[in-house]
Amino acid sequence: MKITGAEILARSLIANGITHAFNVPGLGLHPLVDALKRHRDSIEYFTGPSETAVTVMADGYGRAAGRPAFVNLYHASGTALGMLGVNTAWADRSPMIFTTTTSSRRLERRDQYASVPGDITETTRQFTKWSWQVPMAARIPEAVARAVIMATTPPFGPVHLAFPMDIYAEEVEEDVLASAPMARPDRLQVFSAASADPQGVRQAAELLRSSARPLIVAGGDVAQHGAVEELVALAESLDAAVLGEPYVAYMGFPNDHRLFAGRFSPASPLVEQADVILAVGAEFTETAPLSNAPPADSKIVFMTTDPLDFGKQIWADVGLLGHPKTSLTALRRELQAQGHGAARTEWASEINARCADYRGRLAEEIGKDRDATPIRIPRLIKEVEKVFGTEAVILDHSTTGTACMLQMYDFPDPTRYFGLSARASAQGWGVPAAMGMQIARPDQRVVAFAGDGGFMFTANALHAAALWQLPLVIIVLSNGGWHDVAYGAQKNRGWTDEEIRDFGWVPEPPIDYAGLATSLGVSAQKVEAPGELPGALARARDASGPILLEVRSDPKAVEYYLAWQ
User: Is 304 exposed, middle or buried (0-12, 13-18, 19+ CB in 10 A)?
Assistant: First the structure.
């Protein structure tokens, strides 16, 4: 019996555990969509308002689910528009099966409709772990199986497969799904939780054991690979201070833990005093002219899942390549085997003092001007925490509110926080990514924070949230424009308010974000004063579908954002 390439693709996705497909339909895609329709009981299908939106949704899905979704775009223009999601998936190591439906094989190199000058996969190659244009229907099972393995083997990341549109209608014998070894996902199991080399673990343990002032920098690898408990146990056994990496996609350590002392900064007294720094899966992305790297003379143990990280931002005395869960367990066992190390009484006192000072500063900032209008970010964060608690999934793309969010919202379970790293810097990511996360975690409530400027990049994605009735809460921080940019221009370059407006960094006429959401089918409310927050948030919590709150927030939030760097 013969079946089509589109049917082979749908069955291959199912066989490899792919349960969600994101797509923007176009000419030539009918056979693929027909195949997905036949398998709606196994693959949930979502179509969105743009290629940018659906690819970012797939990125958000991959982050929250820990496994990839299938996203298919159309031709060169669709691929180009989807690059925002591919870029963020690459930057923050999110698993994704990104695919393009491209032109018929018989028309290649003729500059046909929606053509590319070469191979469509050249567009994405520098941002993907693997890129391949599948040459024939019989090789689709192999392509899908290999793509899923590559996307989900640490370090995670996107892969790109291109399917010529005529491959969907090509017919081959049905036994192709079972005849080739590479088409059998049950024979392609990969066990990738390998620990770092024992010799390196011993050297790392010796450094930490002899350390009088150990410091840990918790990075995104920890949460992404389920190693938070292992890192907490190691920190407690060492009595080491813990700092979060500077810009986080995933939070690697509970920020309410007694050893947590805030975000990493080279200027931190704990960093300056530490004699050994253990950095676990952390990025130290520089934002010129500031450096986020540890001091050059620091003794560093660096643990990562990616060999390309070594020597990229820091130079480690001991580099450990391996899965953080198994590697941290091995390191703690080696420390126990080596016995008691240096006494750390003075360091424990210093950590306690610094943590107490840190929490005191947080409390002071949270309590300051609580009833001020416009609403201060700390007040907003604590009100959201009071209503939604620690069970909600928080997506933060607020930019100027991020420093406060990372430290003021308590995350005893850090895997419930999702952000965007500096390496991924991408306006418009927040809302569609939150939609993908809500799809991945239907039994949890996703609350998304978005800056008003970034929100406008992909605001039309709200229509899909309304169509699918996602129980998503979106909080737009309405501070009147690009105030992080405007603040720098005014403070450092002497620009006036009039010049800021003239350059379009303060939108005039003002944008009615709540009205825009309502027009797209999403319930919305404006929140002008702090006293309105509890009621508005409670109504959002109790809503069954998507809801947007336009919160009039402090335009000077950037000042305390910078103060908490």
Answer: buried
